[in-house]
Amino acid sequence: MSMYTAIFCSRIVFELAERTRNFTSLRMRRIVGETKIDFVGKRLWAGVLSLVLIAAGLSAVWARGEDIFDIDFLGGTALTMQLKNGLSVDEMEEECRKAFVTRRIDNGKLIKGTKKGAKVHYTLNALEIDGIEKETVWKLVTSVPKSQDLQDLVQEKFAGKLMSYSVTVRAVRPVLDDSESSTESPIETPPSGATGPSRQDQLAGPFFVSVTDEQEEKTGAQVAPEQADEKESGDKKSPPADPPQLPVLPDAEESTPAAVPALARTAVELVFGEPPVAGTDPETAAKPGSDGMAGFTLHDKIKSAAENMTEPITFSDSAIAVRPLDKDRDPKWNIESGARYHEWEVTLNQDQQVTERILQQLEDDLANTPVFHSSNTIGGKVAGDTQRLAIFAMLTSLLGIIGYIWIRFQRVVYGLAAVIALIHDVLITLGAIALSFYLADSLGFLKIEEFSISLPIVAAFLTIIGYSLNDTIVVFDRIREVRGKSPDLTEAMINQSINQTLSRTVLTSLTTLIVVAILYWFGGQGIHGFAYALVVGVIVGTYSSVFVASPALLWLSKSRS
């Protein structure tokens, strides 16, 4: 798009202005006048300066060790939490800073202290969810290895500020027979060909219990009523010619089939959200205060509540059935789905009195349970893959640049000289990121923080490579023009070329630097590290085009000759 506007749009503007006679001449003021600076003659001092900067930066990288990497390359835990009241970005950043400033990671554990272990890295982003107040839902991605450690720390540092689950019991009714819940099965049947029972099979188990062995001993072996009906019906159709006579024992009493007793069952409707206002109809008063709860989570919470009661009750998975009631529920919902809903129907294999006790315990448990919308662990394998992909992207870009410049200038030395300058730029920028850890306290007024290598920083490296290459190609193109058909490349040719393009180099670099400096100062926390790397990269890229790429081209040309 930039090339399109530079070539096409700008030409249209100039052509329209010329046709309307808005200007009759076009003049440009030179920022830098005609110069005759011996840039190549200062290559030794420039080389010493570059080596010092690279050595200092790489030493800082080595000293920081793994601490220089961000979550993208180390792995960690991502936690989405919800606050009772919204906080601004600055307020939330301050709360997180207080939470992690006295914590370190040592041997995969989160410990208190500031001396031992690696610093906790984190990123913070506000999320918007329909029906929930803005700036109350935040996603916190940290380098903490264990999810439970992060949850415990968040609960400690954000005590009283986290939204907890609120459940409203809408209706409690006994289930008289199986027909009440058989019209819409809460659990989908597993697909055919399954090799074993899944969690769905367990939760969709029977809600009636057959006659126990003790009852069978009292009543004798009986035939189920359905089977008796079938047998009687069959006898009417084709009675046997000579029915066998069964022996009758003395004093034997005529027995009748025993009814199969069913366990007491209770259905409950639950609504997750803000409790209804007093005096209003709970059917319509409850409003979503969170994004609801997943089916398997609700099942486990109920089972845990029953076990936490004064007189614990242990449920099998088949004794609890859950079914969403939301109007927008997925018609193909099943218990293993992670979809969250606000309204649920729960059926328990207990009478109404016991069910109410379980519900009371559930309310008490959820009142102390923060709403964590999600908690995910970023494994080491994912982090390792990210590192390899980042390195692959950098190397591929450098090889592509060598090939392009080789074709463009018909000589491979131009490509090699350009890549030397690009590696120089990336190393110094990397060193600046590593040194920020030691400069943050003294240069904090410049908004320098303890920056780390993350995916945005890798993107900044690639951007720097592209920018520096563009500036280098402009200089190389002028060198080729000045050289003409001369068989040898001399210092005078390079100095003349650099001086002729110096005004353009300064103008381009200055305008780019203004933009990235504004981005760095006012861009916000999300792109602060990215903008910092660009500020350093633009300055270093301009320097390398003059003092690194051109002398490297001269050295490679002489070596080839």
User: How many separate domains make up the residues?
Assistant: 3
Q: What count of helical segments does DSSP give?
A: 17
The CATH architecture of the largest domain would be Up-down Bundle
Q: How much helicity do the residues have?
A: 40-55%
How many beta-strand segments?
Answer: 13
Head-to-tail CA distance between termini: 41 Å
**Based on helices, strands and strand pairing, what is the structural class?**
alpha+beta
In CATH terms, what is the fold-level topology of the largest domain?
A: Multidrug efflux transporter AcrB transmembrane fold
Q: The biggest beta sheet, please? A: 4 strands, antiparallel
Rg estimate, integer Å: 37 Å
Question: What value does the average pLDDT take?
Answer: 78
CATH superfamily of the largest domain: Multidrug efflux transporter AcrB transmembrane domain
**Taking strands numbered 1, 2, ... along the chain, how are they ordered across the largest sheet?**
5-6-1-13
pLDDT under 50 segments (min length 5)? Answer: 179-261, 275-289
Task: Give an account of the 3D structure.
There is one protein chain. The chain is an alpha+beta fold and 561 residues long. It folds into three domains: 218 residues, Up-down Bundle (Multidrug efflux transporter AcrB transmembrane fold), CATH 1.20.1640; 82 residues, no CATH class; 124 residues, no CATH class. It has 17 helices and 13 strands. It has a four-stranded antiparallel β-sheet. Strands 7-8-12-10 form a four-stranded antiparallel β-sheet, covered by helices on one side. The longest helix is centred in the last third of the chain and has 33 residues. About 17% of the residues have low confidence.
